[in-house]
Amino acid sequence: MISEQLHRWALPLWVTLALVPVALVVAPLRRRGVPEAVIVLGTFPWTWMALTPLGGTRTVALVPLVDLYDQVTSNPAAAFPQVFANLVFLLPFGAAAPFWRLWFRRFRRVFLVAAAFSALIEFLQYALGLGRVSSIDDVLQNATGALIGALLTWPWWRSTRRGVRAARHPVEQASPGSARPGACAADRNPPI
Question: At 135, phi and psi to the nearest 5?
Fold first, then answer.
């Protein structure tokens, strides 16, 4: 099963691997090049795979979690790679977007933009007649993967956020209940 999947998706994986050296050279030349490279190289192969025709019948599943439940109960061994791929699809976007633009330093924004991109992919799968199931569950799993990516990198961009906040709004005295001068609730709590 795994060798069949590797054979099917060899081209997008090889193209992505070929672009890595280019990204390693070009990304440091741009101010936000590294996060951009992570976003593009991390989502490119999955987008290619999602827009590859499979030759099945195109269907739509708009009731949340029903398609996922059917997959897990009918064939758990086949459902695991599907769920894993859906979670990993936009994880690099969620991990790198807060470093790319300050606007993405809110978890809900990462989730909503990832959900919109995933909904676009699902729409294209249906509109182009690629023989795939266009499912709301895929959208939810993709956006959840992006949220997991943002959560995984939160300790790093949170510290950067603190520096930006301190530069914009210097605090002269300690906030109530804080152990260090200049601390505020936004420094301790994750952004929602």
Answer: -125, 140
